[in-house]
Amino acid sequence: MLEALGLAPTAETIYRTVLEHPDWGVAELAAQLGWPELKVRAALDELADLYLVRRRADNPNLVSPVDPRLALGSLLSRSEAELKRRTRQIEATRTAVATLAAQYSTDQAAFAEVIERIEGLDNVRRRLEDLAEHAQHECLSFAPGGAQEPDTLEASKPLNTRALNRGVVIRTLYQDSFRNDANTVRYVRWLTSLGGQARTVASLPLQMVVVDRETVLLPLNPDDSRRGAIEVRSISAVTAMVALFEQVWSVGTDWGDAPVRDSRGLSAQEQELLRLLANGDTDELASRKLGVSLRTVRRMASDLMAHLKARSRFDAGVRAAKRGWV
Fold it and tell me: May I ask the CATH architecture of the domain 3-66?
């Protein structure tokens, strides 16, 4: 009944049971419902994320339900606000689509000068090679996801060598996970020895290449770059992408420097994982965004729990929130 508020059926069942028996712990809830304790803890994690339960000050092993009039009322208001926002967004998108359609139908040539669709990975690679061959000033790129194949890295060397010899500035942002890939490490050492620049961050929003601050290539689907790309030559769009690159570049770690830990002892990857999990990302989604294996994400989450001295993810979330980590 409460799924429209973002509450899964299992979490709703736990919430109703906690409302009826506020003094019960995980073991009692599991026994009452005939569920494994792990399932109960996962549901409590979800309830905590939605601020429907909170840890009891007198006994951290127990939770107290938040008054449904307040908690569910807040969720309902949030859902209503989100619905209004989505409605406005859909209307704005509809207007934008109509405008683009009208522009395209009246002046297809002008539209083609601004944006072009490139189908298939091979065609995208050929276009990238052409842009790199004719670059005059600067190449900026985001390289998220998994490490590239050694053959792909080797194939890019002649193009990059010629570009650097022409005085083209090459700056590339990788994910921190690339530091563990031997082929990428060798390639970046080669690139920086010729004057290229490289930095890493915990995660990147999407794959992107900007050439001479005039042209930007973006994936048709950020989750599947093999489908193709769009080439954009709109001044406003390219300017926005350059600003995004500079913002992320400013917080990156130079490839030659070892990633540092903050005052809490957390690496940038661990900070980002905390943020992703706090936002509700699954382990699988977090692994894709961080460019690491699912096993690595689960190990990092386990290490964070140990660092927080937490007995479950729910407990870890509560402790991290109390410390102001998320």
Answer: Orthogonal Bundle (1.10)
